[in-house]
Structure formats: C-alpha cells, structure tokens
Amino acid sequence: MTRSNLIGGEMLNWSDLHPGDARPAAAGPAATALLAATLQPDDSVLIAGPHSAGVITTVAGLVTSVDLLVRSAPDAEELAELLSEAKGEVFCGSLDRFSVEGKDEPAGASGGGYDVVVALDGLERLVGPDTASFPWAEALGRLQALLTPGGRLLIGATNSFGFDRLIQPDITAALPRDEDWGRAVEDRAPAGLKPLLSALDTSDLQTFAVFPSLTQADVALAAVDGFAGVVAARAVASRNDGPVLMDPYRVVLDAAAAGVAFELAPAWYFVVGAEAPAVLPAGVVPEGEGVLLEEHLLMALRSDDQAELRRVIPTYVAWLGAGAAGSPDNVILDGTSYRLFGEPEELDVVEHLARFARRALESGARQPWPAAADPHVLTARLAAMAGITVPEQEFTPDEVVRPRGSAEQLTTVARLADELAHASARAILFEGTVSGIRRSLPYRVGHAVLNPARVIRRRLKRVLRKVRR
Q: In terms of C-beta density within 10 A (0-12 exposed, 13-18 middle, 19 or more buried), how is residue 393 classed?
C-alpha cells in the first residue's frame, strides 16, 4: 500500500481511530462477519470513513485490492504503515473532493469503479469542517457513483430515536465536543427507518438491526423477534450497566414482543447488491422452538400462577440434577424439555434459583407473595417447591434488591404503596371488628364471669409455690 495521498479537506490534528471526546470508529464482530459474508477474493474495495484497524485488516485479508478514504492525516499515515503489504492506496480528505486529476474513473479503482464500497460508520464523518455543507443524500449519491455496474454498497446509519433515547438520556448532548462544528441540517441522515429506506430506493436491499451501536456492533439481525430479541436485549443491557431510566433488557424484550424492536434499534446496516446471513455473527441466536425459561417463570409470577411455578421448578431442578448447568435466563424451555441458551454456568441448584430471584426483583416484576420481597425469601420459597431447604445462614440478612430502572422503581413504589394502603384498611377493619366485639353484651358478661376465676387461679399458684419451697 502506498503512502497516504492528500486530496483536500484533510484534518491534520485529528484522529478518528484514537478520538478524545469524539465517537470511535465503526467496529465489532457483526461488522467483520458482514464483510466476510459479502466480499469476494477478486473484489476491489473502497472503505470510506472511520473504521477500526481490525475491520480494515479483515477486508485487506479477504480481497485483492482495498483503498481507504479517511479524513484524518494521522490515521492515514498509521493505516498506510499497517497495510504496507496490501495492494491499494490511502486517500486522506473529504468525500466531496475525492477525485484524481486527468481521470474520469474513481481514484485507485480499475475498470471505472469499485466492486464494493464500505461505509459502515455512516456518511456523516466523510467530510471535515472545511466542507460547509454536504447533504446526506449527496454523499450517498457520490458513493453509489464510485461503484462498477452491479457493484455492492455496505453502509451504516445511526438511529436518532432508538433504545438509547428510552434507556439513558445523553447528558453530554448539550456540552460542545471537538467534532461539534457547525453543519447544515440536511447533512444528517434521515430520521427513522422508513425515510432511510426511501432514500436508498432499491429493491435489491437487505437491512439489519445493529446492537448495541455502530461503534460496537456485537450483533446484526435481519429480524428482531423470538430468541433474536433476547440476543439484542443482552447486547443493549451489556452497554448500559449504570443508572438507567428503564431496564435495558426488559425494554428491548418488550419491544421485540410488540414487533417494534427493529425500528427502535440503535443503528442499521444496509446491504445493496449482496446477500448476507440473517444473523451476524453466525450462531449467536439459538435455533429451534421454545421460550426462555426466565420469561416463562416471570409470566407465572406476574399472573400469580403458582400451580405453573410448582410444575416447572421441580422439573428444572431435576434437569440440573442430571448434570446440566444453566440459570433460567440461559435456558430454553420447550414443552417439558430444557436446553442451554449459551455457555454452561457452573453454579449449584440454589445459586441458579438465587440468580433468577435477583433478576426477577431487578426487573420490577410483581411477586405473588408479600413476604418474598427480598432474594433470600424468594429463593427459599422457589427451592421449597422442589423439596430443597435453604439454610437461613447462607444469606446476608436484610438484603434489598432495587429494580434496575427508574421507571421500574416508580412502578414498584406505587405497587407497594397500594399494597400498604390495602393492608392498612384491613387492619382498621379488624380493629373495628375487635372493638365492636369487646363492647357487645355477651363479651362483657363472659369477661365478668371469667375474671374472678382468673384471680382465684393466680392466687392458688402463688400459694402452691410457697408450699413447695
């Protein structure tokens, strides 16, 4: 690979590969899996925009020729040295200035264009601050013009109203960052999935929902339903482990059940002219029928179906006793059979049940037993359904597990306040009933008859104690 070529619009004191307070470059196992599925050995490829070194080296190992277009001069020098043995060139500058004097064909390409253009980071970071305005639709058109007839286009786009907006507010949005220079409104990607699909305007298109983000693409899914929804929920939850507005895991699962998780995905991949597997990377979504055991048990808890709990818990414990290892959030229930969803977890039976109890309380799920408001009691109650006695000394006294998100906490507070109000009303009713009994004539007559007998009985006890001494 030749030394980087400056084409205009380059940023000299800037790095997208090693940003300060800016967004990192596109990366992740889903990105590399998509490239491996769509690239062919004899392809000439252009990678436009910030992509991690791992993604770029993956492409260089898959194809004959790869050119890079980056806006950062330090990144261009670093990548040229990294790919010194690969065939291709590094161009440093803005997409709107990407051309070679005296040639009509795209820079670095042969035969009038590239077989594949890759822009998995999106189109917003293809220019620098020297470009006053470069509308998203125009950037898309420029990339499409770089393709050979029948060429393939792989681009990414961030969702401006995805799960992140529901789970965690961006408290840094009002703080100016290094990359927040003035730009025209139309430079941003269209908001929402439908406008993006309309802008692409092609029938030969495959769309993937990306989780948890373009810069950390752990999984890309052609459909977010069933077990794919669980995989997406895990990916989003792993990225949001601090204080949140809503439980990330639960909100993604609920959206998947409602059929709107694809539209609320943090980002999307759009594949034009190629076909990729429906799940990237392959194998992350389990095959077959069934339901996640945790979801089945939580539904039984919410609906107060104790008969179902007493039916499922013993069979699950028996499955564990047969040598299996998996907590309810990692086990698939298919009728009366169980199978793992992921890697085995080396825990004993009580620890598996304790993990479920804790996750149930963190989700804010309703508990049918008022006394089981902490993981200790709930675990012991569930274990008792399978004939297991949990010693009290195994637990930390007075342990409190709060719901994961602020919304779930408020819901729990409202439910507990309602239960307290009902308990208080029952206590007042009971106190009134007892007071009425004490004022009744039969009670007063019986008290008058029995009171002398009590006095005589106490005096006889004192006399007998003196005699024994």
A: exposed
**Cβ-contact 265, 163 below 8 angstroms:** yes
CA distance 74 to 92: 9
Residues in contact with 95: Cβ distance below 8 Å, sequence separation at least 6, in sequence order: 48, 69, 126, 127, 134, 139, 142, 143
Closest by Cα among 311, 302, 310, 347 to 329: 347
Contact 49, 69 (CB under 8 A): yes
**Bridge partner residues of 26 (DSSP):** 51
Distance CA 246, CA 252 (A): 10
Digitized pLDDT (tens) for each residue of the chain, 469 residues in all: 555 687 778 888 889 999 877 789 999 999 999 999 999 999 999 999 999 999 999 999 999 899 999 999 999 999 999 888 888 899 999 998 886 343 334 444 545 589 999 999 999 899 888 888 889 999 999 999 999 998 999 999 999 899 988 887 666 655 667 776 767 767 788 889 999 999 998 888 999 999 999 999 999 999 999 999 999 999 999 888 777 778 899 999 999 999 999 999 999 999 999 999 999 999 999 999 999 999 999 999 988 899 999 999 999 999 998 888 899 999 999 988 999 998 888 888 999 999 999 888 888 877 777 655 678 888 888 999 999 988 875 555 556 676 766 666 667 667 667 777 877 887 888 877 877 777 777 766 766 666 676 666 676 777 677 666 6
SS3 291: strand
Q: Largest Cα–Cα distance in the chain?
A: 128
Long-range contacts for 53-57 (Cβ within 8 Å, ≥24 apart)?
Answer: 53/17, 53/78, 53/79, 53/82, 54/27, 55/25, 55/26, 55/27, 55/31, 55/120, 56/82, 56/83, 57/82, 57/83
d(CA 454, CA 458): 6
Whether omega before 106 lies within 30 degrees of 0, making that bond cis, reads no
The rounded distance, in Å, linking the Cα atoms of 76 and 68 is 8
Whether the ω angle into residue 281 lies within 30 degrees of 0, i.e. cis, is yes
Rounded CA separation 216/231 (Å)? 15
3-state secondary structure of 299: helix
Residue 82, CA atoms < 13 Å, CB-side half-sphere: 20
Which residues of 276-362 form beta strands (DSSP E)?
Answer: 279-280, 291-292, 331-334, 337-340
Q: What is the pTM of this model?
A: 0.83
